[in-house]
Description:
The chain is of the alpha/beta class. The chain has helices at residues 9-23, 70-78, 95-104, 125-131, 160-166, 173-186, 203-219, 234-237, 240-244, 246-250, 274-278; strands at residues 3-7, 27-32, 57-61, 82-85, 109-111, 138-142, 149-154, 195-196, 201-202, 222-228, 255-258, 261-264, 284-289.
Amino acid sequence: MKITVLYSGNYGERVLNTILEKFAQNIVSIHEIPENLPEYIDDVSEYVPENLKESDLIISVGLFGDINLIVCDIVKKTNAKSIIIESHSPKQVTKGLKSEISNSLNGIKIVFPKPFCSLKPVDDKYIDEFAKYFGSPEIEIIGETIVKSVTVKRNAPCGSTKYVAENLTGYSLNEVEFESGNKLHNYPCLASMDVDNELGDTILHLAGYKIKEAVKKSLRFSNKILTVTADCKGFECGFKCYKICPVVKMGEKAVEIEKTHANINNLFCGCCMKCVDICPFNAIKVLNYKI
């Protein structure tokens, strides 16, 4: 697999350094895009890098606004088949810009993970090969009551999963889920704290939910879960819990609908409590329970 990387800013540089650890031999072209470009650019062609090489996958990291449109020109010059354009800020790639890029590249597989650590396989040869190693965090925690070791099976593209794993040893298993979020902040996670209108939450919070999801999947329990009682009448309210859930909007099945009733999948749930607050039937309860 041949990869071209476009990057900008501190976040872009961090991701580049992380993925070089695995894909150094696959990356055929690296191009730094200037920061602080205008949000709206009439003609992005002047920013298209020279000396582009034949590629299978284009990864765009840290670009804001119209400059993201350069991928359309780069695809033509590199014959790339797949594209990853990440977002760690609501200001990077608007809904309209996504549509413009997608419509311009009909037949090319494009994903827009927001945050980048939400990337999952999408039944695409090149994106899925990348997602084996970078994307939604996956870890293995060893220990009966205290964490003895943590192995990273899939790192976040920014490298935060590795950092979190290295700093969880010695904690009680009951503390690990909470502490994983703290360690992500300490890394520090560079995702935005501005609320993303598409997701209904901050991208930093969503990144936190992803590392906690990895912890819960490894431990098979959580200190706090949400459960839906028999009082649920989702068919009457239009399943407000599903519509408001930022993790659902991110692409995970945190809320699942079964005919007239909603269920919470606590492996994915970030316990943001938005569904609890909006439920008109007070049917979502908080419990301490093993998943």
